[in-house]
Amino acid sequence: MIQAVQLTKTFDDFTALDQFNAHIQDGSIYGLVGSNGSGKSTLLRLISGIYRPDGGDILVDNAPPFENTSIKDLIFHVSDDLYFLPQTTMDDMARFYQGVYSRFDSTVYGELCQRFPIDAKKKLHTFSKGMRRQVALILSLACCPKYLLLDEAFDGLDPVMRGAVRKILADRLADGGMSVVIASHNLRELEDLCDHMGLLHQGKVIFEREIDEVKLGFCKVQAAFALPPAAAVFQEQLNVMQMDVTGSVVNLIVRGSSREVLGYVQSLSPLFAESIPLTLEEVFIHEMEAVGYDYNKIIF
């Protein structure tokens, strides 16, 4: 298990993480989302032992990872900014990691080379961004880490490769041999893949919960009226986050349960009313607006 307790990390006068708390259970795929500069990449570097905390604790299997080779042997961090040794091929990097990671599995490496259309003997500096990302994923999985940390894991991958990576990660998780932490801005990818989610803003956790529970606090309702009620009618009884009226149709996004919100709207005698599931992106936007991160103040 990965635990962050009152975790703090600063860079000069900038606080990247501010008394951050999180618990990432074994056997899960945990998604990290948040505003730019919210601390996602910093957290991954603290978990992998690249950074030392300035306050609080980061524990992996109840031990700090910084300068702890036995813990680092369990962790593979695929950074957003990929780096390979100069003039190397994928086979060269595989031999390098085989000497570093005790769990490196040559059989797994060979199987992954068959599944991905990558020339393992070609110089990596000649590869495209997407191909370099595939190489990093192959090498990381061949190291058989207990904890795989992915920063923008799908960046540069085409739809076919994204689907392949999702399947491989799901298969490894089903085998019980790995936990995955993914930091990404691609909420659609995380929505399909993750079972837990943490939302960060300004170095703090806004919420941390199972993916199936993320949307439960919000409800989207669409209703049509012969004569739409005034906005105050909805706002007096509901915690309205957003309301749009187009002709006779009212669209509401409300903080609350779908049953209660839809029940109230139906009490207003609409011609019809229905509840529509929110996307993870819509939840993200409205949770961020609640803490003052309003895109309407940025896009003008």
Shape: elongated
Strand percentage, roughly? Answer: 25-35%
Number of strands: 13
**Portion of residues within helices:** 25-40%
H-E string: EEEHEHEHHHEHEHEEHEHEEHEH
The overall pLDDT, averaged over residues, is 87
Rg, Cα atoms, Å? 23 Å
Class computed from helices, strands and strand pairing:
alpha/beta
Strand order of the largest sheet: 5-6-7-3-8-9
Which regions are unreliable across 5 or more consecutive residues at pLDDT < 50? 295-300
| Sheet with the most strands, sense and barrel status | 6 strands, mixed
**Distance separating the two termini:** 43 Å
Number of helices: 11
Mind explaining what this structure looks like?
The two termini are 43 Å apart. The chain is α/β, with parallel strands linked by helices. Helix 4 packs antiparallel against helix 5. The chain is built from eleven helices and 13 strands. A hairpin with a 2-residue loop joins strand 11 (239-246) and strand 12 (249-255). The strands form three sheets. It has a six-stranded mixed sheet, sandwiched between helices. A four-stranded antiparallel sheet has the order 11-12-10-13, with helices on one face. The chain has a three-stranded antiparallel sheet with strand order 2-1-4. 33% of the residues lie in helices and 29% in strands.
Topology summary:
Elements: E1 2-11, E2 14-24, E3 29-34, H1 40-47, E4 55-60, H2 69-72, E5 75-78, H3 90-98, H4 106-115, H5 129-142, E6 147-151, H6 159-174, E7 179-183, H7 187-193, E8 196-201, E9 204-210, H8 211-214, E10 218-224, H9 231-237, E11 239-246, E12 249-255, H10 258-266, E13 272-276, H11 280-290
Parallel strand pairs: 3-7, 3-8, 5-6, 6-7
Antiparallel strand pairs: 1-2, 1-4, 8-9, 10-12, 10-13, 11-12
Helix pairs in contact: 4-5
